[in-house]
Write a structure and sequence with these properties.
The chain folds into two domains: about 10-65, 2,3-Dihydroxybiphenyl 1,2-Dioxygenase, domain 1; about 75-150, 2,3-Dihydroxybiphenyl 1,2-Dioxygenase, domain 1, CATH 3.10.180.10. It contains three helices and eight strands, in the order βαββββαβββα. It has helices at about 20-30, 90-100, 140-145, and strands at about 10-15, 30-40, 45-50, 60-65, 80-85, 105-110, 115-125, 130-135. The strands form two sheets. The chain has a four-stranded mixed beta sheet with strand order 1-4-3-2, covered by helices on one side. Strand 7 (about 115-125) and strand 8 (about 130-135) form a beta hairpin. The longest helix is centred in the middle third of the chain and has 13 residues, at about 90-100. The radius of gyration is 17 Å and the shape is globular. It starts with 10 loop residues before the first strand and ends in a 12-residue tail after the last helix. The relative contact order is 0.19.
Length: about 160
């Protein structure tokens, strides 16, 4: 197991009014799965990430404080969002259709000029926005910029 040797981008944390509902939503509408769950006297939390993403992990931390349980606290709306890029338009359209059926499609699929691409916006149970995109090329641009360089815990840009 490698150890952290330099500063890293590791997570984004969002409050949740119902952690079990939120976890189920993220597992249904995104490729994220539970990495770990925690509970203490103040509340519950769950870390979600890509399965088997060992190198350069990044997680979404959902936290439900007992004092705020049941109170929606959207942090990412109307434009602020978490972005997830999918490999095909068909995957995006399938997610959008599933979100429409579940009444959580915030913006139907549309083509937006580069670098945005083909996108839709969905809302999690707390009202946070998740952008699903195709051909936004974030992954591709990062690979072009740093893909040929040695991997490991090298800080970005070095």
């Amino acid at each position: 197991m490698s150890k952290l040797t330099s500063p890293r981008w590791t997570h984004v944390a969002l409050p949740s009014c119902d952690i079990d509902r939120s976890v189920a939503w993220y597992e249904t509408f995104t490729p994220l799965v539970v990495v770990e769950r925690f509970e203490d006297a103040m509340g519950k939390s769950a870390w979600l990430g890509h399965a088997n993403q060992v190198e350069d992990p990044f997680v979404l931390v959902l936290v439900m404080f007992y004092k705020d349980q049941g109170k929606k606290q959207p942090q990412l709306a109307p434009f602020a969002h978490i972005g997830i890029e999918v490999p095909t338009e068909q995957e995006l359209e399938a997610i959008a259709a599933k979100a429409k059926s579940a009444d959580c499609l915030a913006m139907p699929p549309q083509r937006i000029p580069p670098p945005v691409g083909y996108v839709c916006m969905i809302s999690d149970p707390d009202g946070n926005r998740i952008e699903i995109s195709h051909n936004q090329q974030v992954y591709q641009k990062v690979q072009e910029r740093w893909g040929g360089k040695p991997r490991g815990n090298q800080p970005a840009g070095r």
